[in-house]
Task: structure prediction
Amino acid sequence: MNPIIILWAHPRSMSTAIERVMRERGDFDCLHEPFLHYYYLDKSGKPLPHFDSEAGHPSSYAGTRELILERAAQRPVFVKDMSYYVMPELLDDVEFCRRVRHCFLIRDPLRAILSYYRLDPAVSLDEIGIEAQWRHFSGLREFGIANSLVLEAEAVQRDPGSVIGRFWRSLGLDYLGDALSWQRGVIPDDWQSVEGWHRDVRDSDGIRAPDEDSEQAGEDFAEAVAAAPQLREFLEHHRPFYQRLQQYSITRDTPDA
Result:
């Protein structure tokens, strides 16, 4: 049975760069946010800027699930997606939960929220996405699925080779150092419908070093809050879930399962 690895992210967490690395490996069939169509065309009704739906792509949970399973019948599959697209209904699908190896990517919510707001000033509390990741992660553990991996974006940025290497080892994958770089300006075909969200990865040739100017980030966030006070509420709501997930990061000591 071919593996299905899904990286469950929250928006603006550097997940597209991780997906690009997995594509560069060449040994996975990679899917880019297949559940996005379900969330924005069927479930939420909220418009998503910079999104043009793909003709023929399933827009139901069941249809997207079957798409992933069909692809996995042919070869190993890696999916990058968002927990908030499929919560809580994913946890009603225990069979699929057990079929998938679940990985979670997190990033400092202040920076993630600020980045999202710049692309979509109408961003909602749910779309920040970190609470859904925690509900997802903890729900899996209630099923006895305790092998989920948590990865911190900042750790990847500081030392891509070492941290991605640890990620691959945890998944039982060979280390392929060439996958850490790619051709600048070239994007996969299935990114076309959401290209506006992925310009940083498109315009780079590898994972970029982190911006360590936390003071400037704080000032930029305060300026954004002055125009959109709800962002402060979003941060206060999601930060505790981020901190809980941090405790399970493979870049630090991992609690007992």
